[in-house]
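Re-run with default settings, no changes from the original entry. Doing this only to confirm the output is reproducible before filing.
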Amino acid sequence: MKRKILLIGAIICIFQFFYLPLGSAKRLMPEYIFKAPPMNYYFRLKGVIFSFTSPAGVKGIGQVAAQLLYMRLLKRGVFEELISEIERGEISQEEQLRIAKERGYDLIINGKVLCCFDGRPMFSTRATEEFKVFDVKNGNLLWHAMAVGISEPIEEKDYIFYRRKAKSSLSIEQLMEINAEKFINLLLYESPEVAPMTKDMKMVEAGFHFITIKDYERAMLYFKEALKINPQNPYAYLNLGYIYQNTGRPKAAEKMYKRVLEINPADIIRDSTDPTVVGMRLVDLAKRNLQELKLK
C-alpha cells in the first residue's frame, strides 16, 4: 500500500496565548490547537512527570508512554530539573496537583494514550497521544498538544530474486518515541508571532490553497514566485516536490526535496493536512518523501 504523500502549507498561527481553566480545556481546545509560553520559559523551572492515562483494555501503556517522554525530555535538557513520579501509576489530576504542591514542583507534565494498536508485521501500527503541561501554582493548563503516530508496513524491491518483500511497521513504543520527540519540538519552538509573515511565505500560503483544491498549475505559479522573492524558501521547494511527485515527474520531485535538504531549515511543522507529521522537522519530511520515491 502506498503511503499518503504529505501536503503542508506555510506556518499558520495556530497558537492561542491565554490560559484555560482545567475544566474547560478539553471542551474549548480543538484537536490540533497548540499553546505555548515564551521560549526558554521552562529551563528555569522544576518539572514533574506523572503516568499517562491508558485506554480501556491496554493496562500499563500510559506508564510506558510517560517513561519514553521522560527519557526524551532528559536527553534534550528541556527542564533545569525534571522528576519522575511515574511509578505512582495512574492517579487523578487533583492528586497530582496535591503531590506537586507538597514537593515544590513548578510544572506538571501528564497526558493520555487515546488509542494504540500494534499491527505488526502485516498491518499498520497506531499510537495517538495527548500531552499537557500544567502550572502547579494555579492549576491552569499552560500547553496542550496531540500527536498522532501511524506506521504502515512497506514493500521493498528485492532485485536479486525479482520479488517484493514486506518490511514490518514500527512498534507502538517506537511510535511513542516519535510522538514524544514531536511534542518536545513543538514545546521548544519559538512563537510564530515573533515576526510577521514575509512576502514569500504569503506566496507559499496562496500556493498551498490551490494544492488543496488540486489546481496544481496555479499552485506552481505561486511557489515559483515565492522562490523569486526568496530562493532559500524550503516550503516552496517541498510543495513543488509534492506536485511533481503527484503529476508523474519523479526526477523533478527528487530535485526539489534535495534542495530542502541542502537548505537544512530548522523549521518544525505546526500545521498539516496529515496530523502524523505535526512536530516533525521539514528536513525529516523531505527525507521521507525521497525514500517513498525510491520505493516506487
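The chain has two domains: 22-190, 195-295. Strands lie at 46-49, 81-84, 107-117, 125-135, 141-151, 154-158, 163-167.
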